[in-house]
Every structure is written in C-alpha cells, then in structure tokens.
Amino acid sequence: MALTLHVDGARWRAAQDAAIAANPGLVPVVKGNGYGFGREVLYAEANRLRVTMIAVGTYAEVPGALAGFSGDVLVMEPFRAAIHAAIHAATQAGLPSVDDGRLVHTITTRVDLDGLLAANPAARTVVEGLTSMGRFGAPAARVGDLVAAGRGEGVTLHLPLGSGHVDEISRFVEAVGGIRPFFVSHTTADEVAALRRRFPEHRFAARVGTDLWLADRAAYEMRSHVLDVRPLAKGDRVGYRQRPQAAGHLVVVSGGTSHGVAMESPASAATARSRAIAVAEGMLEAVHRVRSPFTVGGTMPRFAEPPHMQCSLLALPDGVAPPSVGDTVPVRMRLTTAYPDAVVIE
Fold first, then answer.
1. Is the whole-model pTM more than 0.85?
2. Residue 85 carries which DSSP code?
3. Are β-strands 243-244 and 220-232 bridged in parallel, bridged antiparallel, or unpaired?
4. What residues does 313 pair with on adjacent strands?
5. Domains, the chain, with CATH or none
6. In the predicted model, what is the mean pLDDT of the chain?
7. Would you put residue 303 in left (φ > 0), alpha (ψ -120 to 50) or beta?
8. Where in the numbering of this chain does the Alanine racemase N-terminal domain appear (predicted)?
C-alpha cells in the first residue's frame, strides 16, 4: 500500500512540449524532490526534450544529474571554496568533483573564483548578479570583471516572483557590457521575448521548474490507499494522543509526514483575506480540528490526530459513506514538498 503520484503521461508531456515551444532555449530546473516526480524521472524527460542544459540546485545533486542527463549541468548554488574545503576536511571525500567538463559553476566573488580555478583551471563558470531578490550575487558593477576574470560563459540572474522584470534585467545587461548569455529565473516567455527584442545581440535563456513540470495540474494526481476502516462511537479515543472523537468512522490512509503530508512552508499572508484564513486555521488547529488534504466520500475529513510518519488517521463524519480497505482516495498536496512512494506514468 502506498502514496502514489499518478500521471497522464501524454498530457503531462504535451504541457512540457508547449512550454519549450513558447520559450526557446529554456533550461529545465531539476532540483530538490524533483517537483514530486523525482529527479531521475525529470532527467529522463529533459533528455526527451533534447535540451542542451539543465540546472540543479546544489552540488549534492550533481552526481545524479551527470549520470542521468546527457548535456551540461548548471549548479545554481554559488561555488564556495571554503565550504568545499571544510567538507573535504571533515569527510575526506568532499562535495562532487569540480573537474567534469559538463559542469557550469555559479560564481559571486573573486575569492571563490580563484579557489575554483585553483582546483580546476578549465572550470566553466557563470556569474550571479545580485538582483532585488537579495539572496546572493555580485553587484552589477562587478559582474563584468568577474565574467572576464573567469572566462565566464555568461551571467545568471534570480528574480523575485511576479512580473515586471524586464527593466531590472536590462540594467544588468547595460552594466555588464559586451555580448553575454543571460540565464534568468522567474521570468515569463513574454518577458524573455521582450528582452530579445531590446537586446538582439544577446542570448537569453529562462531557467524554469514549476512552469515546466507542473504546468498542467490536471495531468497528475496524488492518490492514497485506504489501509483500514472502523466505526467510531461518540467519545471513542484513538491514536497516540488518545483524543476523543465524534461519531462516524476512523479511516487509516497511506501517506504521512515522511511523504510531505500536511508539511507546509510559512504562508506569506499578503492580503487581508489570506491573513484571516491563517488566523482561522490556527484556531482550528488549537482545538484539534485540522482539515486533512485527503478527499473521502466527497468530503475532506479532519485529521483524528496529527499525521504519523507513513500514514494518517482521518475522522470521517457520521453520515458519510466510508470507503473500503484497498480503495484509493485523492490527496491535495503541494508537489514541491511531496515524496510519494511511487510515480506511475500512464
């Protein structure tokens, strides 16, 4: 019994093909949990798309990417000479070798560039510019010098979510000078097209993850197996915490915290409505009435108690027809934090 991601392969791949057609030169991002599909599945899809480069998040992801993908691999986290040296000293192994000719490293400082070139004089690099995202990068005035010092292959820019990035990217293009490829994140196809019209001598390549792999939400569904069902009388106590339950049925389903069930990132609560929702959900949690992401009998029952590591206990209200053991029920999950037991591409 398992938590399984079911994928309509033809529909999912059609969405990928459409994204590539709309944004020529797109660089697929394959990082973390592989957007719920697993990185190995996405390496194979990137090969199918015949792209020449993918981007990964960290150096720890490099070995799998080099083994699973046939083209170049851009590492989006910056190379840090001190971190590589410290890990090597602690483990006598270190992070993956920087010698592979298909690797493209991200540089933000001269000291790290010097450390990388000392380890591999032929290392391929791009220079990250410090955008309004404010995460890491070199100020625009220094980017050109770093590119020249490392014989860099271009500039990479990580932008905030939203739109309106053309002017900010343009400032970097004008500050850096020369003809450079630019790798940009969180831009739309229209923004990239506008940049190409404004700077026809430059190459702009969008790095895309979510809008490539998760473009068509109707193409995939997470499903959970029903592991057990039993009637509940009012006041029956269940679970580790022995909380009393209302009358109905206890439904035990596959999928727990190890799969990412009910694991959420902090909400931005940017609007009055989202703040009100956050307050309401907090009040429900305080009285142990948290709605689960599982849909059973047309309803989303509450958790009988917080999810376990690999299964969840649901309190199905009285009057709702219970499922049978072995049935599957859909689960509404954020795939960027999901770790299913299996991925079935049909």
1. yes
2. H
3. unpaired
4. 252
5. 3-213 (3.20.20.10), 222-345 (2.40.37)
6. 91
7. beta
8. 11-152
